[in-house]
Every structure is written in C-alpha cells, then in structure tokens.
Design goal:
6 copies of one chain form a homohexamer.
Chain A lengths: L7 E6 L20 H4 L3 H8 L2 E6 L14 H21 L4 E4 L7 H11 L2 E4 H12 L3 E5 L2 H13 L6 E6 L15 H9 L5 H17 L3 E4 L8 H11 L8 H15 L19 E2 L2
Parallel strand pairs in A: 1-2, 1-3, 3-4, 5-6, 5-7
Helix pairs in contact in A: 2-10, 3-4, 5-10, 8-9
Organism (chains A, B, C, D, E, F): Vineibacter terrae
Protein name (chains A, B, C, D, E, F): Hydantoin racemase
GO molecular function (chains A, B, C, D, E, F): amino-acid racemase activity
C-alpha cells in the first residue's frame, strides 16, 4: 500500500480478435478510434474519463474464426493473450492491465506476469465476483450457453467462490459458430432490446434472474459472457420495475474500477500466491 | 451500476469519542482542522485528495472513557454511532460513509441505513478482507489483544470469510484501561518505531506475520485494531526486507478506496441482503 | 463441570418493553403477576415448575414504540438490554439468565458478561438451533418477515450454523409499525388459531414448513420471531396430522432447558471464546 | 415439545460386559448395587439424584475379553447392544436410554429404535460435542490410543461436527489387551492421580490439552474414551491452575443432562432423520 | 505401489443370506454354480473374466428373514459379515475382497481387517462415489425407500462426500418385509422392464434422475440399493434417449474395477486411517 | 457402463518436449524405443504389460527450452498439447489418453475433447488425488518448488479437493532454468538415491512427508512434479522403515490404472460437466 497514483494508465486487452469474415460482431468496429472499437462504449466511457487508456484488439484467434465458448477455446485464447500482457508490462506505459472478456482467459497466468512487474491485472468475471461480495451474500451468474456456463463454473471453483455462488443460470443463447445454425444472433437481440422492442434474450435473462433470486437465494446478479454485458442496464431496470432490489453487475466497469482500487492502493497481487521463478524466500507448506 | 460520480463526498466517522482525560491518544488532536484530527493522516492524505470529506469525531463513548475491546463495548459504540449515520445519510451531503475503527462497530446496521438512502457505507475490517481477496488466497490478521481478537473473529464469521482467514495473530499489546496497568502504551510504541527505534510492538507484529505466513498459510497480512494501523508501512518494509512478498493492508485506505469503487459503480448494497421495512417484494426462502 | 445445582434461579429478560399506546400486544399483560406478563405462559409454565424465576419486562425501547425487526432495531435493543444483564449477574440472585425474544438481541455480548460472573446466559434462537442438532440433520426456520428473516440469517451465520440450516422460510406476516398498515395483526391470528378457526398465518406456516421439508431438506422446524412461538403446538399438530414426523421447536422452552443443562453441568461459556479484559493467559493465534 | 416429565426414568447401558478374568477394571464392581457398578459414581451421582435409574451391565462381549478400541470391536459391541435397547424401549419402564461408553457403539441405530418408541437415546461422545457447541467455537478431544482416536474421528465425521472439531489429541495410553503388554494400566494411573501423585497419563492429557488450545484453536476440551473420564475434574483443575479458561467435559454427565433436556422437551429424534419402516409420508429427495 | 498382480483373486461376499422361505429373490439362485447365484450376472460377467473369483452367499441373517433397510438391520448384517472377511483374509487365497450390497454394511470395519493383512477391500456405494468423482462434479443417488435413503445419507456423510452429493432421490419402492404389504415387488418390476414392458419402478427412476439433473445439479447418477442395480443399463438408455449425457453407475462393476486398481497398484488402505492394534508409530493429533 | 474392453490401447503423451541442448534430462532418451524414452520405465513397465501403448514425446515447448514451473509455462504447454489430443482421439487408435506430467497441463480441456469422442483421458495429479481418496482421509503433496507448488495448489482447488488436501510440502529443489543456477540437479539426486547414496532431495522429501503426517494430518503421500516420481519407492521404503504406514503414490501408475478402470467401465466423463458445442439438452441452472 502506497500513495495512490494520481493518474491511471491502463491497457484494455480484448480476449482475442477474429479475422474479417466472422459473423460475430458485438457492436464494435474493427478499426477506427479506440472508442469505436470498445463494445458497449457508452456504458463504459464515464469510467474511463480519469484513465489514460489504450485498447488492444486481442491476439488473433487461432482456434477458429468464431467466439470462444469451450474449454479448449478458452485455453487457446488465454495462451495467445499472454505475450501481449508480457509486452504491456515490460513497456512501462501502464500501471494496470484490464483483461476484457467474460470468461477470464489467461487471467491467473497474467496475474503472475503482472506480479513480476508490480503491475495490477484485473479481469471481468473475477472483478464482478469480488464486487458482488461487497453487496450481498450470494450471487448468481446469468450466462449464455452450456459450454460457456461450464467455463464460468470453472472460474467460480478456481476463484474459491463456490460458497458465494448461488447458481449459474443459462439463458441458452449460444454464441455463433459458422458450422452451426445461429437462429438468434446476440447482436440482433441487443439492438431490439436497446430500441425498446421485445427481446427473447433479455426476457430469458429476466426470467432466470428472478428464478435465481426466488429459488437459488441470489441477492446480486452477474453477467457471464461479455456478449451479454449490454443487458446490464436493461436487466437492472426490469428487476427494479418488478420490485426486486438486486444489483446487476457487468464485467467492464467492475474490472476497471477494481484496477483503479489496486493502483491507488499500490498493490497488485501477493507474491506468495504468485511467486516468481526463484523467490527470495520459500514456504515449507501451503494449506487450504 | 451507473455513471461514476465525478466527485466523491465522504463522511468519515470515528467509532467513538472519548472525553478529555482519557489516556488514550493515537496521534490525533481532539480539535482543530480535520487533518489534525485524523489518525495517521500522512498515510491517508493522498487517498483523500480527490474526495470532499468531513470527519465526525464519533459519538461520545458511554461504555467508559477508554478505547473499546470487549464485545459489550463494541455493541455500545455501534449503537451510539447509528444516529450519526442516519443523520449523515439524510443530510444529502455525502455519497458514501466511511466508518473508521478496526472492529467495525455498527457496520452491518449502518449498511441497512445506507441502503435505504442509496448511500454506500464501508468499514475498515470488511474492506481489508475484500481487498485481500483480490490479492491472494488467505489472509491473517495481526491484532492487539485477546478480547479484540475475538471481535475480529466475530467479524470474520459474520462476513462469511472463515474460508479465507488463515488465522488471527495476537501481539498482546492491549489497549489502555484506566483501571488496568498500561505498561506498553501503543502511542509510545508508534513513536519509537516511527523514529526508527526498536519497538517491541512492531517486533511482535513482524514475528506473528512471519508465523502467519510460514505456519498458517497466509499470503496477505491485515491489521486488526485501528490503533495498530500505523504499523502498515513499517511492517510491510520489514517483511520485504526479509524477503516475504506478502502485501500488508490497513483499514483506512481500504475503506476509502472501496467506498470510491462503490460510488463510482453507483451501487451500495443489495436490497435483498438489507431489506427495507416493507419491501416491494419478498422471498419465500433464504438459503446459505 | 461440577455438582448440579439442586435449584435453578433464573432471570428471564424480555428483549425490550414498549410504552403504553403501542398496538403490539402478544398476549401478556403489562403489569400484574409475572405469570400474566409472560407470553405463552400456559406452554411455558411446566418448564418453570422447578425454577425460582423472575421476569424482567425489558429495557424501555428507544428505537420507537414498535416491535423490532430491522438490524438497527435489534442493535438498539441489544445494547439497551446489557445493563440489565450486568445488574442481574452482579446481584448474586441468579444462576442463569434467559434472554427472551426470537432474534437474540445482545446475546453474544451478554454471554461475555455472564462468563465474567460464571453465570450461564441462554437465548431463544441459539438454544433452538442447538436442540435441533440433537434431533436431526438440518433445520429450517419459519419466520415472519423479510427484515426479521435477515436477522435470523445473521444469527445462523454468527453461530456458525450455516451447514445445518436448510432454509429460512418467510410467511410474510410482518410485525406492526404505527407508520405502516397492519392488515393481519399477529395476535388476531393467534386468537383465531387457538380458537380452532382458520388462521392465514398458521396456514402459511404449515405451507412453508412442508416446503422446507420437501424442497429444502429440513427435518426439524424452528420458529424465528417470538411473536410466532404460539404456533408451536398447532404447527406440530398440523404436520403430524399430515404425516410429517418433524419436530417443531420454539424458543422459550429451549432456552430454559438449555439453561438448566448448563447450570446442572456447572458451566457457562468458554473463557477462550469470551475472554475477560486481561485474561491470565493469551493465545498467539485463533483459527477457524 | 410438550409438558416436561416431572420424573426422569432412565436406563443406563454399559457398552459391553467382560467376562470374569479380564484385567480391565475401571473402578466399578461387577456386581452389587448399581452405584458400586457405575464407574466414576462419585462424579455422576448428583446428576442422577432426580432420576429413577437402572444400570444394565452391557451385553457380554463376543469380540474377546478385553475393552474395545478397533472399528471391528466397536461394530461388534454396537450390534450386541441393540437388543437391550429394544427390550428397554418396549418395557415401558424408561423415558430415556443413556448409552455409556466413549465411542458411542450402536448409537445411531439405537436412536432409530428409540424414535419408533418415542424414547430419547443419548450417548457420551455425541452429548459432549453438543454441549461443547453451547460453550465455544471449537473443541478438541483428548483420547487414549491410535485405534480409539480413529473411532472418535469416525464419530466426528458421522455427526457432521468436522467444522467444530479442532483436533483429536492422542495421549497414547492404549487399553489393555491380554495378548499385548500393558505397561501403564489406566486404573493405576487413575488411582495415582486421585491420590494426588504424579500420573504420566494425566500429565500427557494436560500437555495435549494445552497443545490443543495453543496450536489447534480449541476452546473446549472433551474426553474420548470413557476409561479416561476420571480425568475430567483433575484436568479441569490443572488447566485452571495454569490460567487456561477452557471447560473440560466428560461423557456421563453430558449424556445424562442431554437426556433430561430431551425428556423435558418431549422430543427424541426427527422421524425424517430416523424414519420407521414404512413412514406415513416420504420425501422425494434428501440433500446435505 | 508395486508391480501389478498379473492375476486377480477376489472373494465376493453377499451382504447376508436369507433362509428358505423369504419372498425376496433378486434373480439369483440360492445354490448351484456361483454364476447362477450372482445377481445381474450377465452385466457383471465381463468384468470377472480376468478374475479368479469365489462368491460367498453371505452370513445367515439374524435380524429377520427379509432384506435390510433400517440402520439396525445394516448394523446387524455388517457385524455378521466381519468374521467372513477375517477368514477370507487369513486364508491367503484372495488379494481383494469385494463386498456386495448397496448400503456397504461393515465396509469401514472390513477395511480395517483388510489393512492388517495387506488386502484391499471394496464396496459398492463407496466405489460408485469414487468413480463418480472421476466423471463429473456432483452425483445423485437413485434409491428405493426412506429407510434405505437414510443409510445412503449415512454413507455419504461417513465417506466425507457431502460436497459432491447433489441429492439422494427416492423412488419409493421399499424392499419386502413379511409383516408389511409388498404391492410392487422389485423382481416383478425388473422382469417387466427387462422384457421391454412398462415398469413403474424404472419410470420413477427416470423421473428422479431427470429431477436430479435439472433441479439438484447432478451430472452423474448412482444407484443406491443393490436390488435396483438391474436398472443401470435401462436407465442409462432412457437418459440417453432423452438427450441427457449423464453416466449411470451401479455398484458391482465399480467395486470390482476399484479392487483391480488397488490390487494392481499394490495398495489397500492407509495404515494411519486404519491403524492396527499397537502401531509402530502414533500421531499426537488428528485433524479434519 | 458397458462390457470391459478386453484390450487397452493407450496413448501416453509427454507434457512437452525440449529441444536438444536442454540441460534437463530426467532419465529418458530423446529417441529410440518408447521404453527407453519413458521416464522411470522400470517402475511403470508392469502396468503397461496388458496395454498396447504408444508414447508421444510431447509438443515442442514454445515457452523456452526448460521444464515448466510457472503458471504461464503450464498454460503454454497445455495449449500446445491439445492438438495432439485431438489427433489421437480422431485417429481411432486409442481407447484412452494418458497425459504424463505432474502439473496436469491441459487436462480439463483434454477431457472435453475426449468426451466428444467417448475416449477417457487421465492425468497424473488428478489420478493420484482420486486414488488417495480410496486409501485414507487426507493427502499431502510433496513437491519441488514455490512455483510448482502453486500449480499443484491451483489443481487441488480446480479439482475441488481442498477438503482432502492436508498440505502441499515444498522440498525446494527447483527445476533447472538456463538463466538460473542449478546447484542441485534432480537427475543427480535421483542417481545418487538409486545407488543407495545419500540424497539431500530424498532426505528433504522424507522430512516433509513426516511433517505432513505429524503436523498436517496427512495419511497418504502424493508426489507433485513428475521429475520427483522416481522417489516413490524410496520414499515409501523410508517411511515404512520409520514405522509410518502411509501409502506413497506417484502419477504414472495411477493415471494408467485409472485409465484402465474407465475403459473397462465404458465411461469417460459426464457430458454435463464437459458439454459439447450444442448439446441435445441444456440445464437451466448449475449449482455447487
């Protein structure tokens, strides 16, 4: 803990970049200004107002030209992202790295890199889970598909959050894959919902959030896949209109704000949890 | 979650105020500018630079004219502090309340008040435990005495943090009580340590932090009693000098930074965890 | 553990006393003989037959002239009750203090006081949870309102009973407050039910107890708010008539019987869990 | 829960009886008055003053003519004891059965029998663990040997008490077996200790109790094997003399007092936890 | 761990044998070749192809001439089976003992015996739970009756598997007892189902398995009572036909395969978990 | 579950292959017969006697030309190994894949691949932990360095084994890196130990295993890094010589034997835990 940095210098890194021709477009241009390229920029902009920030488009995807959902795909994009984290840490240009994407690919490993440089690294699922802990007793995650659900499950276990996770709720709007039908594109759902039209995806999220509250004991709602983050304000409004006072979170803002906290406090990660190659001291035992 | 507030307006409230004549003085004047009255101001000042803040001296203690350590005393000062929280929330002058003091008296109840006004309330132990969760796997709390230890124990249980707390370590420097001998005043220890002289209190904290790391599995160190918060930078240096890369936290800065995060994110607490008198909707069941 | 006391000398302390004019009357006169002032006396009398007992009406409420439901109110009445516990312990007249009321205000702190005098202190929720542990694997709590539910939730966590609590079930019969409508007064429900007439409150309790058994895995049923304790024999009968062999408990009898056990065994509380101001010995660490 | 029985009618059943010629004698005559046959009668007598009680010597041991320590032996004596429980319940003479012996052989099964007759059954380890829960946060068990330790381990798991058990501590004074050397007979230790002479067994218990308190986090001490129950008052005195305020329990008194509580409250066990052959209602699911 | 045994020599032991006249016949002849006497032999035969095996009919039942369901009955047959385990281990003819039967009577004790001979002992419920852990996150047990469910509950607790058990699901087809009606004999259900006719028992199992998957979070299905093991291939097919990719296990094959693993690896059980009478070394403490 | 395969056809895949010039050689030739290339072949050979097996040398390392220890390195080799798993599953030549290496790189993802082909995948740490569960209550892992310890920590959490892991014990013999001193090469230690000479590495393993048993409550010992698997028979002998009856496991044999069990039982992984891209059915919720 040290004097807070007066100025935040963050690199935001997308989980991966798809090649031209992918049918998956979540509302961000492929090129142009960073503002145009950041999904849900309007929601995120105020949180970046006091930040000097760059946006990295993500390492080119090598698993295929479609968004990630399976464990294999998450492992692949995680591994591809690490060199970017190394480079960013070594550049001296940033005091925090914000990993975008809902399933946190490469996050634990990126923290290890960040620790060796004294640079904080945050990610969307982990940050949401921690903010949820400041608000209530148990959270549920509203998420898009079976495979993506199991990645969120993996993260809840890995982050030792099972005692706080009431459930992962599936709205079953899987991400598009060129070799599979895509009957309900998420960007179409988003556009409908943002125009005030009925969106089966948003309706499903409302239904599952209510089930999470009434049946599973959730008092805070998180969003799993970043392709569903656009629902945050709309889902919050819908719950409020019904009378359920459950905060709804999404990942970008949580990851940015947690990064600010860490930078201000002058901390990044415990060197015992993320040791360097040959640490000055070693422990005879680790316990759980 | 909403647009981040451009400006933080915080009220910091001491846990209680003692009457003139108390022998307990932790480095803050009783009157004068707020800066002079805030303990450890030098360490905290940078974190308040972007905050419009007031400092309330705390409700006059009714349990006796000595610092709190027992459960009874914590309950008493907690109850005494709530009217201040009510008043501050109702005043419309603040967007967050930061409860000072290591044992979090009245914190859960103050959050209930804050929730009804949509105002975030943070406190030193809870904030430290949450920040610790961002850094490593398990924390230990270095604390001053048997009775105060058991208040920290109570908090770890109440906050459902038992799975993350490696241990509470006692350095046995109890707070002064006029009816008991006070052979090792904490302010004397602080002054010695800050002058670079040997301090048995700081030495005990180093010894217990090492034991927490080596024997209990801690990878982050918290400080329990606010009267020990002055040790944070010194204990951090001592551990680093030995080679243990374990972050050391204290409560003021954590509580302030967590308050900023909540205010920025436009959230305070779940209305399901802290329901109002007759909430719009009610749940048939709650589970753990 | 020592020779059992041949005679029990107990002080029963109400959680608080309301001023004349409160609309809340749970079947006990404000003055007259102690028997007339103890709610549900008929159910409780046999358990007091071998006890020399006094009934304290409780400290006058300072939170308002209505029954407690919120965390703030519980903290307030808890703090107000402690001087009575001190006085009773110091009087030498009692070998146990039985704290009446469903939400256990001031219980942990009162145990600290009792410990310093070697006097057992029991309370209704804690005693019920312990008796439940003698009977089955998991209990559910039938309780009256959202806010009161969350107090029970708080207690289950604080008593480290989360692993045994299947659920808290809400029948949504909130306690009266003068500034809020009171469409279903609890004493009216009680009188109807005790006359053998249909009571929506009792019916709701039956429905939630069945749901607790069938859906949540409860095998013992507790009652949360003391204003619902009158339901115990009726709820027990209803479940038996249906064929569910789940014991139904309430707080007064459990708290009295647990007090007898402790007095007989010559124990009150562990001095390590509830240490005195400067205990003879101190522990370097506490773990969970 | 019903009107408390004015009079307790208990059958105490030894875990087993050895044939003449066994070298194991724990201070009770084989015949004569029940008072002479009950081990540690002087300590237990006051707790039986308000009880009409009989003492059954236990079913003749079929595992061998030595005290039980291994899992096989516990299973054997447990099975042998059940017909006695059946007979006692069917006789109509008792309102509770108190199973003597430290390792609770046949206890869960005896509760099933008791439930079908509406008769409470208590046992020494289970009762101690429950009383410990009324006193502090975590208990340790001081016990006599590796094999007996693992029976206590088995019980802690079976009773779902792992979260409350700080440790089982072995003093390594195994019970005698005719085919093995018996260099430190427990009755010799007892007699020495009760005469005020040095007893290595008691000294070991003191040492392990201190280690349990200082290293394992225990705040209540239990005794495992009934052949060690005689140490309770002496161990309590030794700890008090050192300054450790940890209650020390033993099984006879706890089991008797818990039986009184259950009889007074008119309860025995949940019919859902211990269902009869074809219960009136059945549950579709059970959860943990 | 040592060189794998080239040849498996197993004794399979039934949980008990009923006298002639029992109405309970689960598809195995009372005499004749071992193949004719082993229930579900067709399903099990391939797993025994590389095993030299004997089948013991089980000790004659002494609890009554009906199958076991209650805790008392399980304790009785467990105790009766131990001498067979002793004898088999001492014979030197076997390198593993496979305990047949769904509720694992005498299993923990038999492992103690096996350990003292260096011979592996496996049992059906324990083996299934371990295999389930190799396949997914949480299992549910489909089982036959209230009393048998509670035996399975007992085993899940005893094996410290509560964190992995999503639920025990009751299909309510209790085992026959001569003094109770037996309207739906299990062998009739089996024969109907195996002929391809509708079986209410199998239908109930399908319904409860689906509920376990959809409501309780199970991803692997176990069968509780061995009298329901015949359902394994049929239940697996039914789930697959519906589209649920949840493995369905049963006990015989799991217990046999686990025995092979242990024999191959040259291990049986930890001597610390199952110590001998006077082990070479003893531990000062055991923790959980 | 189906008829056991009469013949096992396994592909063993090394975690990675280093380029010529690496100083790390754990006893296996780079080329030649598979037997010569498999580390610790003498110990493993008997377990492969009934297996048609191939050995893949592993994907060429891209993280550097040294063995893996850090999280980044594990992620890298895990991602590199997945195409080999794909190819092997698609080839139709194998009915199980055995992933060699102590830290299980790519294991969870490889199971997802295997599931889609109906092919079992096993790995060394996971297999050891499961076998340990068949033997005792709690295991400890003896491991080589801080960074590798934290990978094992990660696995224990991910596999939801924290309740069974007593500790991870560090012997501090880190793996060689060309840019760091390598004062105690592991192959030198191995050769010394196997010649019967004193080996500080083996001595450290003995010391930490004893500490795990005496202090942490372990009753089974696992080995973390595959570069330490050679110690298994020697460590087992040393513990036995001292009198500690704790089984010592290593990964190759456990992974091979678990693979045999799964192949015999005709199962690989739950399709709910490892769903395919668009599974036939989806679940509304997942719980923990």
């Amino acid at each position: 803990m040290a004097t807070p940095s007066r100025r935040f210098r963050f690199l935001l890194i997308n989980p991966y970049s798809l090649a031209p021709g992918s049918t998956f477009r979540m509302g961000a241009a492929d090129d142009g200004a960073k503002e145009a390229r950041l999904p849900n920029y309007a929601n995120t902009a105020p949180f970046l107002a006091d930040v000097d920030w760059d946006l990295h488009p993500g390492a080119p995807a090598t698993h295929g030209n479609w968004p990630v959902e399976t464990k294999q795909e998450f492992l692949s994009v995680g591994a591809n992202r690490l060199p970017l984290v190394h480079e960013a840490c070594a550049s001296g240009r940033y005091n925090a790295i914000v990993l975008l994407g809902g399933g946190d690919p490469g996050y634990m490993e990126a923290r290890e890199i960040g620790r060796s440089h004294g640079i904080a690294v945050t990610s969307c699922a982990h940050a949401q889970m921690h903010v949820a802990g400041l608000l209530g007793n148990r959270f549920s995650i509203i998420d898009v598909s079976e495979t993506h659900n199991m990645q969120m499950y993996h993260l809840v276990v890995q982050y030792q959050m099972t005692g706080r996770c009431a459930s992962i709720r599936n709205i079953n709007f899987p991400l598009p894959k060129p070799h599979l039908p895509d009957v309900q594109p998420l960007d179409v759902e988003r556009d409908k919902a943002q125009r005030g039209e009925a969106s089966p995806m948003l309706d499903a999220a409302v239904a599952e959030a209510i089930a999470a509250i009434e049946d599973d004991g959730a008092d805070v709602i998180l969003l799993g896949c970043s392709a569903a983050y656009w629902m945050q304000p709309l889902l919050q409004q819908r719950l409020q209109a019904i009378g359920w006072e459950a905060p709804v979170l999404e990942g970008y803002r949580c990851a940015i704000e947690v990064a600010k906290s860490l930078v201000s406090l002058g901390i990044d990660a415990s060197g015992l949890a993320f040791p360097g190659e040959r640490p000055a001291r070693w422990r005879r035992k680790k316990v759980f």
